[in-house]
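Box 3.1. Reading complex inputs
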Amino acid sequence: MTPVTAIVDAVRRDLTDTVTLALALPDELPIPEPGQFAMLWMPGVGEIPISYSGIGPGPRVEHTVRAVGQTSAALAAVGLGDVIGVRGPFGRGWQLDGLEHRDLLIVAGGLGLAPLRPVVELAAAGGIVARSVRLFVGAREPAGMLYADDLDRRWASLEPRLSVDHADATWRGAVGPVSVVLGDALGDALDRSGDLAALVCGPEILMSVISRQLVGAGVAPERIQVSLERNMQCGVGHCGHCQLGPLFTCVDAPVVGWDVAGPLLAVRER
Amino acid sequence: MNDRNAPTAEVRGLADELATNSLLGDLRREFLDLLAGCSRNIAFTADERIMSAGQPADRFWLIRHGRVDIEIDGGPRGTIVIDRLDPGELLGVSWIAEPYLTEFDATAVERGSAIVVDAACLRAKCNQDHELGHELYRRFAIRLRDRLHATRLQLLDIYRPGA
C-alpha cells in the first residue's frame, strides 16, 4: 500500500496538454498486464490512477498523463531523472485469450488509446493470436490525435482508421465520430459479426455508443470489453470510492465485458 | 412496336449505376428507371466547390468516386470540415423539404465523380407516384437519422477535458 519510488526515464510530449512518462520499474513491483493501472503519487500534491500506456521492454513502463487537475498537471510537468511514487499494478486488464477464430476490433477515442496502447503494440508486432486485428481511433481534431506518429508509421500494418470530430482541409482521414468509420467496417463484416470481438476505450458516452452499435450489429456483449474509469484510490478494493454497483472497479475492473458494464452504466447517477 | 415510355439506353445505364448505390440500390427496377430519368453523371476535380450555402437546393449527388467535404465557414477559425463523405454516400439533403435552400458548402477532397439528381424532377415524380416517394424518403430518413446521431455525438464534445 506504500508507494515505491520510480525514476522518470524519459518524457515525451504527445499533445499540448499530454505527456508520456517512461519509468524504470522498481524491483518491488511486478510487470503489469495491458489494461491495468498504477497509482502515481506526486509528493506533496496527490495520487491519481493512470493506466499503463507502455509495458517493456524489460522493467520499464510508460504512463500517458493529460494535465487536467492539480496532480496530473504536476505529473505532466516532471522532468528526466525526477522521482515519483508508484503503487500497482492494479485491476483487471484486457483479456486476449480465445481470439484465435475471431476478428478483433480495437476502438479508441481520445485519451482512451493510452490504456489500449500496449495491446496495439502487441498487435502491430504480430503478438495477438486472432484472425485479424483492426484499429479505429477517434479524436476531437487532428492536433488531438494521440500517438499520431505511431499510427502513421509503427502501427501502419494495422491500417488504422482515424476519424476526428472537426478538421480543416489538410486532414486526410475521416470526419465525424469514430462510430461512423466503425459502422462502415461493420457493414462490410455483417455476415460474420458473430465472429467479432472488440476492445473499446474512451469517454464513457463513446464506449456506450460503440458497444450498443456492436451489439446491434450482432456482436455478443461478452465479446466486447470496455475500460471503466472511476474514483480509484486504494487500489485494493478496501476504501469503496470506486464502487460501481457490485464492482470495486480498482479490483474487478477497469476492464470488464459489456455484458457486465452495460447494465451498470444504464443506471442513472443521482 | 415502339414503347414511347421505355427507358432510353442512357437512362438504363444510369439505372444500372444507381443499382450499385448502397442507399438506393435495392429500389425496384422501375423506380431506379424513374430516378435515372432525373439523373446524370458528373465529374469533379480536387478542391472544386460542388455545393454552396445559401444557394437553391435543387439537386443532390450520389458520390461514385472520390471524397467530398461538407464545410462551414468558421469565420476567424477558417473553414471547418464537419463531415467527409465517401463513395456511395449522399451529398445534399436540403432539397427534401422547404425552403429548399442549401445549408452548407461542399468541396471535393480529390478528383471524383457522382450521379447528380434533379430534385424538382424527382419531387414531381414522387408526387405522381407516392410509393416511389415512400421508398425514397424511407431510405433518406435512415441516412438522416444516422447523421443526426453522429452530429449529436460531435456536439457533445466528448473529448473535451472534464467532459
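In summary: Helices of chain A lie at 70-76, 113-124, 148-152, 178-188, 204-216, 249-252, 258-265.
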